Structures are given as structure tokens and as C-alpha cells.
Automatic annotation (TrEMBL), chains A, B:
Its EC number is 3.1.2.12. Belongs to the esterase D family. Keywords: Hydrolase, Serine esterase. It catalyses: S-formylglutathione + H2O = formate + glutathione + H(+). It is an enzyme of class 3 (hydrolase). GO terms for molecular function: S-formylglutathione hydrolase activity. This is S-formylglutathione hydrolase. It comes from Sphingobium xenophagum.
Length: 285, 285
């Protein structure tokens, strides 16, 4: 069992909101993540909802502002929030310390390009190492996982969900970057982490994955129509078209007046958790 | 109508979470506060719940972590969160910049002692100036107000509620300082703001107010039993005894395992809002 350091634990909504630190073999640094575990009978295992965060965030943003605990407690869902990049001494950052690349902007890929290849292995971290760690250390039923995310984390949730459709029983996103290959945030990140060969990008672009045959049972997306990033970076219409073409049932809800913030996310968090719970339900023991 | 600057407005849970700034005549500086206004029909007025924050906090803590919006939206309650002290150039602070006196620690009194008397008029600000401003600028039914708070803000809510029992239709608190005259936090603050004459403290001590004849219809208090400040600073038993003596129905819930944080507050926020709504209800139009 890998060593896990408890940073903090607070009782909340009858469960335990924890923050934990561990040395990650995948990224080569210490990593911090949060886990909410509802009250449960000794030995009982609960399904796990993964939440991937957006640019500039750590585990803390959704942990503090996500308003997920009340319903996770009611539905019996473990909620895990990883960080968005490796951090700490020696980890490369964007040359200009921009918010959209490097620290806080790992884009959920395994970098192949120097100097980022040394630590930016967020794909392996989030889809492999951290699930193993969670399975070992929490009352988590790893046969019942689902995944959601926001913005860059919506991109991560969609690509992880499309890549492992058997593992993640539900996939949803808040204002996701649906086509990183086609928008400035994604082009900068994928070039920096994966290089110029755009064929290598296709595994990390939800639209390209769908074009290349990836399928999931269905997808829920909420998107504010007052989101400053909607037209240039998010382009949900591309996901609508790809899902139509592929026959993937997509529920895309354009939410009038909502922006890109946690005020938006928290407004629809309960809907997403219900969506996840329904799809995890058939295996709830 | 007093001038109000909009710092930010975000749509959330169908309503508007705003942050506003204004020049306060009471404290002599600019002050920032937050207001959540649920969706409502044009011209409709809603009851107002006041939330007074604890030491070190600004409006932002409860605004981000309080988990009040979903239920305020459902119940049609405006939720107002003021700052905890004057701030800005020239405002006096604790000599050692301690967290429990001066900035972020106004204790909801009108200071009479130099140098604090110049700006620390938080009692007038919170019970007079800001209500006037809210009544003028928001769809607020000022005949239906209620008040709650946390820790130092629980003290503020209890003393305001006891002082103006006709104005505040409900009074509740999370881990309140019930007897500032009898505990270190309160003794430091009341001495610093009001001076050594402890008779002047009695208007700002819930226990003393009750002893001196103040009455409210009932009080709800939630208190974590794993709260680090419970034994030395909070002493809820003193409120139990004073309420018993005075015949004030007190619902004090000792919550096992809960601490002093917003993880605790957010767990029971819905119960408090329901309590307030029931007591505001009979006048809901």
C-alpha cells in the first residue's frame, strides 16, 4: 500500500472531507488531492466520482466551492479531486509563467517534450496511479467509477471517459474544452507537451477520439452562455456535431446567463451527481 | 440612495450572487459586502437573512464556502454577508497584528477607545447603515429580516437579535462566542474597543443582555464538539443556563465530531435557513 500523508480531515455533511499528500511515481513529485467519503457502514464500499479541475486550479477550488458534499453524502458517492499539474522544486513551467500552460495546466496528458516530459505525466497519474492509490486507501468500489470535470478538466473527463468506457460508468462536464486541437488553449498545450505531430494529439481530443471510433453510452454537458471562453476556447457545437455523427446521446444544456465560474458549476453540480448516481446505480450493492 | 459599486455579479442557482462596495459613513472607509438575490418576479420583495462572519473572515468566506444559495433560491431568501471590520489606509490594527483584534475582528461593537473609535463602528454599520443600504438597493422586504452568524459573528447575531427582537424574526448561530465578557477573545476585544468599564460591555454580551432582560422568541445554535475553541472561547453551556433562567427556548445541538470550520457550517446551513424561513414565513406575502 502506498504511503499517504493526511494533510487535513474535516467532518462535513456526516462524512469526512480529507486532503492527502503522497509521492507520485508517475509525475516524480509530491501530489495533493482531496477525497470526500460519506458516512458508511464498516467495510461498505462506495462508487467513486472523479472530478478533474480546470486551468489554474488545485484540488482546493472544487473542494471549497463545488457544493457536492450534501448530495454525495445522500447518494453515497466518494468524490475525488486531483491537482491539475505536478508542482514543486524543479518542475518546469511556461516560459512566461502563463496561466494556460505548465503549472496548474497539465491538460491531462503524458508529456513527451522536454522539459515537460520529466514531470507532466498527468494522464498516467489521473487514470492509473491515483485510482490505484484511492482503491487501496479508501472504501472505494473501483468497479464503479465515473468522471466529470470543468473546462480543461472537462476535456480530461471526456477523453478519459472515451478512452476507458468500461471503467467510467458516467461521463459529464461543465464548460469543457471539447476540441483542444482546434482552439488556442489546447493548441498551445498539446504542442508544448506532445510536440508538433498532430497525430499524437488525437488521443487527447474528445472530437478526434470520437472521429476515430471511441464511444460512450451518453454524455451530459452544462455550458453557460455568458461564459467568456465559449466562442474561442470551448466550442460545444463541435461536440454536438461529433456526437450526432457517431450516434452518441449528448445532453448539452446551454444555461442562459451563466459564466465559467464555480458559481455556475455549483448551480448544476447536483444534476451531474444525480446523472452519475443513476448510471452507477445498477451496480450499487 | 447611497452610491453602490458592483464589484462582481455571478448568476448562481438561478439568482445573482453579487459583491458590492460603498463608502460607509459609519466606519469612514470603503466597505465590501455580498448579497445573494434569488430569481424573483419584477417588484417582488423577499425577506433578508443576515450572516455575520467570524474572526479573520471577510464577506468572501461564507459567500464561497457557505453552501447557502441552493436553499435561499428555493425559499426565496436574500442572503447578506458584511465584512468583519473596517479596512484600508489609516485604519488601526492590533499592535501585534493578531488575528483576534483589529482588522478582521471588529466584534460588532461601536468602539469608544482611541485609536479604534475612529473607524470601528461595526455595530452601527451592521445594524443601521448597511440595512438602510440593502433596503434601498435590493428587492428586500426590510420588515422581514433575520440574523445568523459564526463564532464572533454568532456573538454579533445573538447580540443584534436580542437588542432588536422585533426587527429580526429569527436568530441563530454556528459556534458562537456567547459570553465575550468571560472569555479571552472577548475580553481582549471589549477592553480594546470599549475600555475597562465592564458595565459598557453588557450591551455586547448575549449572556449579560439576557440577564438584563433582553428576550427573543427562540434561538437555534449548532456547535461542533470537536471545535478547538469550545472550552476556552465559546462556552455554550453559559447560554443554556441563561436561556433556562430567562425562559428563552434554546435549541442547542452539539454536533459530534464537527470542528469550527466552514465544513461544519455548510453541513448545517440548510437547517438554519429552514429555521429562519419558518419564522419569516408568516409574513411572506
Amino acid at each position: 500500500m502506498q504511503a499517504l500523508e493526511t494533510v487535513s480531515q474535516n467532518l462535513s455533511h456526516g462524512g469526512v472531507q480529507g486532503v492527502y499528500k503522497h509521492h507520485s511515481a508517475a509525475v516524480g513529485t509530491d501530489m495533493v488531492f482531496s477525497v470526500f467519503v460519506p458516512a458508511h457502514a464498516q467495510g461498505a464500499k462506495m462508487p467513486v466520482v472523479w472530478y478533474l479541475s480546470g486551468l489554474t486550479c488545485t484540488h482546493a477550488n472544487v473542494t471549497e466551492k463545488g457544493e457536492f458534499r450534501a448530495l454525495c453524502a445522500e447518494l453515497g458517492l466518494i468524490f475525488v479531486a486531483p491537482d491539475t499539474s505536478p508542482r514543486g522544486g524543479g518542475v518546469a513551467d511556461d516560459a512566461d509563467a502563463a496561466y494556460d500552460f505548465g503549472l496548474g495546466a497539465g491538460f491531462y496528458v503524458d508529456a513527451t517534450q522536454a522539459p515537460f516530459a520529466a514531470n507532466y505525466k498527468m494522464w498516467s497519474y489521473v487514470t492509473q496511479e491515483l485510482p490505484d492509490l484511492v482503491g487501496q486507501n479508501f472504501p472505494a468500489d473501483m468497479d464503479r467509477q465515473s468522471i466529470m470535470g470543468h473546462s480543461m478538466g472537462g476535456h480530461g473527463a471526456l477523453t478519459a471517459g472515451l478512452t476507458f468506457p468500461d471503467r467510467y460508468k458516467a461521463v459529464s462536464a461543465f464548460s469543457p474544452i471539447v476540441a483542444p486541437s482546434q482552439v488556442p488553449w489546447g493548441q498551445k498545450a498539446l504542442t508544448g507537451y506532445l510536440g508538433d505531430d498532430i497525430l499524437t494529439w488525437r488521443k487527447h481530443d474528445a472530437i478526434a477520439l470520437i472521429e476515430d471510433g471511441a464511444r460512450v453510452a451518453d454524455i451530459l454537458v452544462d455550458q453557460g452562455d455568458a461564459d467568456n471562453f465559449l466562442a474561442e476556447q470551448l466550442k460545444p457545437q463541435l461536440l454536438v456535431e461529433a456526437c450526432e455523427e457517431a450516434g452518441i446521446p449528448l445532453t448539452l444544456r446551454l444555461q442562459p446567463g451563466y459564466d465559467h465560474s464555480y458559481y455556475f458549476i455549483s448551480s448544476f453540480m447536483a444534476d451531474h451527481l444525480q446523472w452519475h448516481a443513476e448510471r452507477l446505480q445498477h451496480r450499487i450493492k
